[in-house]
């Protein structure tokens, strides 16, 4: 393998030289996670106490601390990830999201007072209002992911989501309608299209991820899951989740290689049951260890096979507002988002 210097641009856009590293990584590269429950327990306990004292305001800073811990404990090809978001950004985004929704509610109230709609017109106004509210959901999903990726780095190169909001709104609304019309049968196609959308618009600096999976490949297994739901008391969906997880990653590629996941249904079943028992029998105290076990399970079963042309990866500045994160909180469409 050829070893020679190559240039990488850091988060400020300043190029710097790293030597002695291969331009093309040919051997399989695994994701390594070395986080432990003890430090996370301390972080989460402090977050709870400070959130109580500050009437919940500190929770935004607490969430940021947790993300920083998870990403700094995760390595790929020998280098850790970094998280650069701040609690202040999340708090400001939440306030902006609240302001936007309150503004809509006030506008509806003024229209109702001035117009005094009755009968059909009143019902139509109510429906229009709730449709407008629900339109915020896809906006929140894209904006939250864009923010998180823009604050995530690897080898000092920032990630980014470069996607058209209107394209995702169309995808989301059309998929939701088809899922309702087909009584959920369209779900594997919808989920696959969502996966493709986010994967194909995710960048590491100047390099983009690619995806070539098809919903029809998962459809037979999804139908089997529907048939086995009652006989297995729903446990069959754990195996479907593992199958879908492997499929998604095996059809994701970057630079000159592809990803591979070894997550199995049996392993995921064991993880799910033991994590549930840990939560129940410790009255929730084991939550940090459960989160660690969950993240580690998926991370350490993921590897990259192929080549990465590091010389082609350069920083591209990407700004993103945290308002989507605030909307995701309000609609429960975001969450901690530490999964793989």
Radius of gyration: 22 Å
User: What would the average pLDDT be, to the nearest integer?
Assistant: 83
List segments where confidence is low: pLDDT < 50 over at least 5 consecutive residues: 1-25, 333-340
Fraction of residues in β-strands? 15-25%
Judging from the principal axes of the Cα atoms, what is the shape?
Answer: globular
- Say how many strands there are: 12
The description of the largest β-sheet is:
10 strands, antiparallel, barrel
**Order of strands across the main sheet:** 3-4-5-6-7-8-9-10-11-12
| Structural class based on helices, strands and sheet pairing | alpha+beta
The helix/strand series, from N terminus to C terminus, equals EEEHHEEHHEEHHEEHHEEHHEH
Query: Can you count the helices?
Result: 11
Distance between the termini: 30 Å
Helix content: 55-70%
Number of domains: 1
Quick recap:
Helices cover 56% and strands 15% of the residues. It has 340 residues and is α+β, with helices and mostly antiparallel strands. The protein is globular, with a radius of gyration of 22 Å.
Give the key terms.
340 residues, alpha+beta, two-stranded antiparallel ribbon, 12 strands, 56% helix, disordered N terminus, disordered C terminus
Chart the SSEs and their pairings.
Blueprint: E1 6-9, E2 15-18, E3 29-33, H1 37-53, H2 59-72, E4 74-76, E5 79-83, H3 87-115, H4 119-150, E6 152-154, E7 157-161, H5 165-181, H6 187-200, E8 202-204, E9 207-211, H7 215-228, H8 236-250, E10 252-254, E11 256-261, H9 265-281, H10 287-299, E12 302-307, H11 323-331
Antiparallel strand pairs: 1-2, 3-4, 3-12, 4-5, 5-6, 6-7, 7-8, 8-9, 9-10, 10-11, 11-12
């Amino acid at each position: 393998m050829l070893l020679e210097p190559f240039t990488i641009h850091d988060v400020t856009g300043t190029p710097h030289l790293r030597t002695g590293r291969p331009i093309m990584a040919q051997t399989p590269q695994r994701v390594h996670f070395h986080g432990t429950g003890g430090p996370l327990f301390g972080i989460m306990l402090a977050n709870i106490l400070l959130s109580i004292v500050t009437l919940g305001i500190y929770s935004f800073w607490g969430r940021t601390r947790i993300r920083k811990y998870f990403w700094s404990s995760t390595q790929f090809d020998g280098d850790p990830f970094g998280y650069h978001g701040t609690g202040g950004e999340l708090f400001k985004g939440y306030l902006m999201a609240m302001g936007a929704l309150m503004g809509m509610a006030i506008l509806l109230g003024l229209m109702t007072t001035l117009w005094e709609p009755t009968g059909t017109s009143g019902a139509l106004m109510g429906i229009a209002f709730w449709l407008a509210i629900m339109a915020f959901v896809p906006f929140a999903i894209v904006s939250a992911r864009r923010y998180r990726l823009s604050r995530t780095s690897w080898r000092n190169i920032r990630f980014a989501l470069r996607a058209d909001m209107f394209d995702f709104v169309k995808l989301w609304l059309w998929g939701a309608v088809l899922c309702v019309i087909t009584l959920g049968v369209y779900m594997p196609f919808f989920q696959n299209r969502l996966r493709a959308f986010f994967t194909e618009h995710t960048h590491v600096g100047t390099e983009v991820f690619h995806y070539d999976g098809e919903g029809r490949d998962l459809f037979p297994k999804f139908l089997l899951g529907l048939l086995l739901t009652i006989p297995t008391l729903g446990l069959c969906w754990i195996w479907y989740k593992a199958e879908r997880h492997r499929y998604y990653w095996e059809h994701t590629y970057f630079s000159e290689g592809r990803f591979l996941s070894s997550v199995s249904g049996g392993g995921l079943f064991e993880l799910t049951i033991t994590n549930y028992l840990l939560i129940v029998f410790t009255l929730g105290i084991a939550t940090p260890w459960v989160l660690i076990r969950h993240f580690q399970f998926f991370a350490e079963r993921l590897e990259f096979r192929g080549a990465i042309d590091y010389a082609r990866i350069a920083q591209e500045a990407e700004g993103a507002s945290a308002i989507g994160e605030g909307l995701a909180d309000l609609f429960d469409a975001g969450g901690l988002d530490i999964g793989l």
